[in-house]
Amino acid sequence: MNPKQAKHLFFVLGAAGFVCILLVVVHPLFLAAGLLMAAAAIVLNLMFYRCPCCRAHLGRTSGNHCPHCGHFVEH
Ligand SMILES: [Zn+2]
């Protein structure tokens, strides 16, 4: 998985988790499902949203370069 895919997955899972948490008014189990999705989004982000060169986490970088080693990273 490249950083671009990891970022995309993070937003999709995060949004799905958020919607699930809102659905708690329908059924209490949605809260657990939503929290699980949000946790999975964070774990996947920490694992895969990294520079392919130095493996540093890309954090809130907005440019296309790793803030640690300057390697070009499309994300
Ligand atoms: Zn780097």
Helix-strand blueprint:
Layout: H1 3-22, H2 29-48
The structure holds zinc ion (ZN).
Residues 51, 53-54, 56, 66, 68-69, 71 line the site of zinc ion.
Give a brief outline of the structure.
This protein is mainly α and 75 residues long. Helix content is 53%, strand content 0%.
* Percentage of residues in helical conformation: 40-55%
The domain count comes to 1
How large is the radius of gyration? 15 Å
C-alpha end-to-end distance: 12 Å
Q: Mean of the pLDDT scores?
A: 93
**Number of helices, counting only DSSP H or I runs of 4 residues or more:** 2
Structure summary, number of beta strands: 0
Secondary structure category = mainly alpha
Largest beta-sheet characterization: none
| Poorly predicted ranges | none
Described by the principal axes of the CA atoms, the overall outline is: elongated
Distinct small molecules = zinc ion
**What fraction of the residues are assigned to beta strands by DSSP?**
under 5%
Order of helices and strands: HH
